[in-house]
Design brief:
alpha/beta
Length: about 375
């Protein structure tokens, strides 16, 4: 008898966030690779055209694609209200909160629903998110409290915050994220940097979770403290052009472009302090690029403690101090920083943990472990 694990891949057919799309793609590949004998992985998606479905069907090893008759926007509303979604039942795993969180029978029908949260901003800093997004996330989390068998977060700091705000208790699981499989400086990196306008040895700023005004203050500080270092901003907010000064604004959508921009950086500066997963920090560490990060629970856990802290500078606030910038490593010092990415980290190779999300348990045992 074959068991089917349904993975919700709405972000691949109607992406709302490039990082969520990346995480969904990588998780699907990992689950397919980790599937035990007798278990197949099926993609579940909203209604979409053939062109949008092409990437999902191209996933190697996916057993099939099940489409809801409802487009994503309407389906999003239906899910938040607990209405019929057409996404099916059984074993459901979602890389986001986008999932059919309804009553199901775990004991007799072996049905389970597992969802993932990468960003707690809608709950901790609702003013930074649209009202519609805040309402949807809060509604989905309430449904998760009632119906999810497990809620996955990538960091223990986020798990602690979520535990304080919900009644999920022992259903919260921590499984680290990771840079995309094969994330490395591509062979055509020089050409990509030329196209993006990214100079060699730049200070690369991760703009995730940073307002345009705060980004402008940071760029001004960088230009004042290290005037000889060009500044590149990855993933700048849409209205950042008026605040960015002479900084180069580069998109953060394409993984190869990101790797090209980060790999040549003298340092990556991460000023964000919101409780969301630090994808660019993780990618910089994977490439052996030094990091200056704002002091926050997320960054403390992401970059590690002990010996690693001597290689990674931490900003006491969202703006780097003169002292922090003055310690930015030169190109000659880069080789000694490479060990940051050499050893195992909490964000490395989570595919081995994805196997624990597979339907291998019966009765009251939850198949997802931290």
């Amino acid at each position: 008898m074959t068991t089917t694990l349904r993975v919700v891949l709405d972000q691949l057919v109607a992406p709302t966030d490039p990082d969520l799309a990346m995480a969904s793609r990588e998780l699907a590949r990992a689950l397919i690779a980790a599937a035990p004998r007798g278990c197949e992985v099926t993609a579940v998606v909203p209604a979409a055209g053939e062109e949008a479905l092409a990437e999902v069907r191209a996933l190697e090893g996916v057993a099939g694609v099940e489409s809801s008759p409802i487009p994503r926007r309407e389906l999003s509303t239906a899910l938040s209200l607990g209405l019929p979604s057409g996404l099916g039942g059984g074993m459901v795993h979602s890389p986001t909160l986008f999932a059919p969180l309804v009553r199901h029978d775990r004991v007799h029908n072996h049905e389970q629903t597992v969802v993932t949260i990468w960003d707690l901003t809608p709950w901790t800093h609702p003013e930074r998110v649209s009202k519609a997004s805040v309402a949807w996330h809060r509604a989905m989390l309430k449904r998760a409290e009632k119906h999810a068998d497990a809620v996955i977060v990538p960091l223990h700091a986020m798990a602690d915050e979520l535990a304080e705000r919900t009644k999920l208790r022992g259903r919260i699981r921590v499984i680290a994220g990771a840079a995309p499989d094969g994330f490395a400086e591509p062979r055509d990196a020089v050409g990509r940097r030329r196209t993006l306008g990214v100079p060699e040895g730049a200070v690369v700023v991760d703009a995730a979770g940073v307002s345009a005004a705060a980004l402008g203050e940071l760029v001004a500080a960088l230009e004042r403290e290290v005037p000889d270092a060009p500044v590149v901003v990855l993933g700048a907010p849409h209205n950042a052009a008026d605040h960015a000064g002479s900084a180069v604004l580069a998109p953060a959508v394409d993984a190869a472009d990101r790797a090209s921009a980060i790999a040549s950086a003298s340092v990556l500066v991460a000023p964000g302090v919101l409780p969301s997963y630090g994808w660019r920090v993780l990618e910089a560490l994977a490439l052996g690029v030094p990091v200056i990060a704002a002091a926050s629970p997320v960054h403390r856990e992401l970059v590690g403690e002990g010996d690693r802290s001597s290689r990674v500078e931490r900003m006491p606030s969202r703006h780097p101090s003169h002292r922090s910038l003055g310690r930015m490593p030169s190109a000659a010092a880069r080789p000694r920083l490479l060990p940051i990415a050499d050893g195992p980290s909490r964000g490395e190779k989570p595919a081995s943990e994805c196997g624990s999300c597979m339907p291998t348990c019966e009765g009251d045992a939850c198949p997802v472990r931290g």
